[in-house]
Amino acid sequence: IRPIDGPCFESVDVADAWLEPQSPVMVVEIEGDRRAYPLAILTQHEIVNDVVGGVPVVVTYCPLCNSGLAFERTVDGQVLAFGTSGRLYQSNLVMYDRQTKTLWTQFTGQAVVGTDFVGTELARIPTALLGWEEFAQATPDGLVLSRDSLPGRDYCRNPYPGYEGSGDALLFEGPRDGRLPPNTRVVGLGADRDPVAVTLDHLRDEQVVTLELDGQPLTLWWGPGQASALDESSVDGGREVGSTSAFVPTLDDGTRLEFTVSADDPTVFVDAQTGSRWNLLGEAIDGELAGTQLRPVPLDDTFWFVWFAFQPETEIIGGGDGGA
């Protein structure tokens, strides 16, 4: 699996000619530089070595776990370049850096085998998996990873048709937990001290879930408009799974906001304090707070089997024996 080392980007208008409104994209933003990485491309390459907002980053996607994560790739002052090792751990992508040949797990960004960095964790960058239309509307001047980065691939093809909803994990031999079927979609949060998995079904029903994790208030959102990349033979043709995002709901002046979904648009959220309207990227798009950006927090929009494998002490919200 060949990573992308020299990514090319195109405008939203150009990308709109080949992406569908529901096409899943991974969104990374640093210092106002917001980019979309279509899963149609990431499924084929799994790793993109890029520079976003002046920061060297590695953008990663593991189809077997539906885990889309990004990390800074500067370690001890050295900029690393990552590739796919061809190995799996807990059915999750194992990366290696070309400089030291150290092996790193994608799900935690931790170095696990080698001589230089074992035990080191890459600094994580918050990401979101959204439908293409949501990104395009919110970021008309954004950059989109182009198929010309490594032309000639059969982009948009899902190599794992039927994996979504199959009920079981592929190539997984790790510990299991019977509270949920292995391939149940969950949103994992709070990995540092108090991990919690919110089932996607519960989040989809509520659309807004308020949490307090690791001593910090969070607001977790769901909106429609994203297809599963792991359902049909086409990445863009899968069933609706929707988009998720999580933020610290506190303004710079200390005001804590409370949110509900808009009555007229299920992809818009309204705060009770000012009535301002917010999109799934945590931007106030209308009202008193227009232009304000909530601080995103890392989340894992993934499958239960891999979240439990890496976070066995997790609580479940929305299902499972002993869940909230």
Structural class: mainly beta
Unreliable residue stretches? none
Strand order of the largest sheet: 1-15-3-2-14
Amount of helix:
under 10%
So what's the overall shape?
globular
Rg calc: 19 Å
Please state roughly what percent of the residues sit in beta strands, choosing from under 5%, 5-15%, 15-25%, 25-35%, 35-45% or over 45%: 35-45%
How many β strands by DSSP?
Answer: 27
The major β-sheet equals:
5 strands, mixed
Query: What is the end-to-end distance?
Result: 40 Å
Write down the overall mean pLDDT. 93
The DSSP helix count reads: 5
Distinctive features:
single chain; 324 residues; mainly beta; 5-stranded mixed beta sheet; 4-stranded antiparallel beta sheet; 27 strands; globular
Structural write-up:
The strands form seven sheets. The chain has a five-stranded mixed sheet with strand order 1-15-3-2-14. A four-stranded antiparallel sheet has the order 4-5-6-13. A four-stranded antiparallel sheet has the order 9-10-11-12, with no helix packed on it. The radius of gyration is 19 Å and the shape is globular. The longest helix has 7 residues, at 39-45. It has helices at 12-15, 39-45, 132-138, 200-206, 304-310, and strands spanning 9-11, 24-30, 33-38, 47-52, 55-62, 67-72, 74-75, 78-79, 82-89, 92-97, 103-105, 111-113, 124-125, 127-131, 143-145, 185-189, 196-199, 208-213, 216-223, 243-248, 259-261, 269-271, 277-278, 284-286, 295-296, 300-303, 315-317. By secondary structure, the protein is mostly beta strands. It is built from five helices and 27 strands.
